[in-house]
Every structure is written in structure tokens, then in C-alpha cells.
Amino acid sequence: MNPLGIGAIIDSVGKVASDLITTDKERIELELEGKRIDQATDLAQMEVNKTEAQNQNLFVAGWRPAIGWVGAAAMAYQFLLYPLLVWSWTWMQAEQIVPVDGQRIGDRRKVCRTDVNVAVLKRLTVKVGKNRERRLNG
pTM for the complete prediction? Predict the structure, then answer.
């Protein structure tokens, strides 16, 4: 389902390249050479990793553990601490230990944020309506 037909082009180029290799021995030798190149790249990276790990400088040897610790801390917060904080805050609101939506402790009259927002929106609507009338009439 490739609309551009790139898959067909790649297949045809692969067929042309495989036609250039006439014997199975050549094909096996090329495959072996590709694996040697991959192995050499992996060995070079392993040497770089060893050198970085043995370095005493914190900015050279410490970046990998730092990334690990940051990731572990982020996951611990997201999946352990945050749900516990949400649960405890909800429980404290239910027990009236902390205020709920602008309510003061011991005060039975609630002032919800939504009530304030509705009042502000009504004022804005009136102002917009007056400005629209001025433009239409004026």
C-alpha cells in the first residue's frame, strides 16, 4: 500500500544488485564481509564505552548514570508518588482538612471557581454585545 511505489523501486534495485553476484560463493563472501563490518563497528563502540566509564571526570562518565537516575525518578513520581498525592488530597478534602474549591475551613458558604468564571464571562459577553451594537449602528 505504498502510494509512491518506492517499495517496487527498492525491490528492482535489489534484484539488479543480486544479478551482479553470479555465484553463491560471492554472495556468502559479501554477507560475511557485511557482518565483519558490523562487528568492527560494535567493537569500536564497546571501546568508547569502556573509555567513558573509566574516566574520572563526572561529565564524561556520569552522563549515563544521570540519565538513568532522572528516568527512574520521573517514573517513580509519575506512577507512585503522584497517584498517592492525588488520593491523599482528595481524602483530605473529603475530611475537610483542606479547603474545597475556595471554601474556607468551617465556612459553610462555598464560593466555587466556576461561579466566579461565569460572572466574568457574563460581563465580557455584555461588553462584546455593546461593542457589536456600536459597530452595527455607528
Answer: 0.41
Q: Which of 60, 42, 63 is nearest to 52 (CA)?
A: 60
Is residue 100 within 8 A of residue 110, CB to CB? The reply is yes
Q: How many helices (H) and strands (E) does the chain have?
A: 6, 0
- Per the structure, the complete domain to which residue 129 belongs is given by 102-138
50 and 68 inside one domain: no
- Tens of pLDDT along the chain (138 residues) come to 555 666 666 667 666 666 676 788 888 888 899 899 999 999 999 998 888 888 887 767 777 888 888 999 999 999 999 999 999 999 998 888 888 876 665 555 555 555 556 666 676 666 666 666 666 665
